[in-house]
Amino acid sequence: MSDLVTLRDDDGILTLSLQRPEARNALSLDLIEALERAVTAVAANTSARVLILRGEGKAFCAGMDRRGVLHDATRMGQMLHGLARTSLAIRRLAIPAIACVRGAAIGGGCGLMVTCDLAITHAECKCGYPEGDLGICPAVVAPLLIRRIGAGHARAMLLTGGVVNGIEAHRLGLATHLAAEGDLESATMELARKLRSGGANALATTKRWLGELEPELDDDIMRRAADLSARIIQGEEAQSRLKARFEAAKPAS
Q1: Closest CA relative to residue 63, chosen from 8, 97, 106, 104
Q2: What separation in angstroms does the CA of 126 have from each of 12, 57, 176, 185, 187?
Q3: Rounded distance between C-alpha atoms, residue 217 and residue 205, angstroms
Q4: Which of 41, 50, 117, 130 could tie 192 with a disulfide, CB 3.0–4.6 Å?
Q5: Which is it for the CA torsion 203, 209, 211, 214, positive or negative?
């Protein structure tokens, strides 16, 4: 594994941790590539029964690391396509995937949250998609969000740039479970152990069947989504808003 992710096996419960706590686990290109490799390893692990996806430190994932790709169209496209592939790979795992969401799941981080089968968070967590305020189109996360909370709620959240707390995230269905913040890790492991105790073949078959019942989500849709997001973020509107946001965030000299 890369230094940017760790993968631990606890008797069939695999815990995949994002390891950029100093950046609130923002998704750099290197982190996305490491995450994609780790998910591939999970898929190939025949003894795996459950996956837990979590972020080290105070935040699950603060979204795409846009500062590193400002004015870099090639890198932007690589990141968005990598996130799209990784999201599909998590979605297609034969084992249940749980997102353990502490602190914040923003933008692409919220996308990772909803691509997992289950997500557990706490009341104070912040979840959502502020991309509209930055002139960005959240196309990559949209297909997954629609399948999680329905087209109407997804439309409202993405068009208004909504960020909600954990209680509202649970009400909308972004999160499937709530726990006290101090109990989040133990509650996640308890849920994982419950899933591990189920029949592996039955769970895998149920996941495949649920996938067939959902509206189509294939590689072409996610590629088109990544291309669309990349085109918008390369435009003058998004670039000027991102630059202004980063300038405003600089500490006063």
Answers
A1: 106
A2: 30, 15, 15, 17, 19
A3: 18
A4: 50
A5: negative
The model's pTM: 0.93
Enter the tokens of residue 48.
Answer: 């795996």
pLDDT of the residue at 243: 75
Distance CA 16, CA 2 (A): 11
Residues shown for the chain? 253
Task: Return the structure tokens found at 252.
Answer: 């006063």
The 10s digit of each residue's pLDDT in 222-240 is 999 999 998 888 888 877 7
Helix segments in the chain, DSSP class H: 29-44, 73-91, 108-115, 142-149, 151-160, 166-172, 184-196, 200-213, 219-233, 236-249
- The separation between CA 227 and the C-alpha centre of its own chain, rounded to angstroms, equals 18
Mean pLDDT estimate for the chain = 91
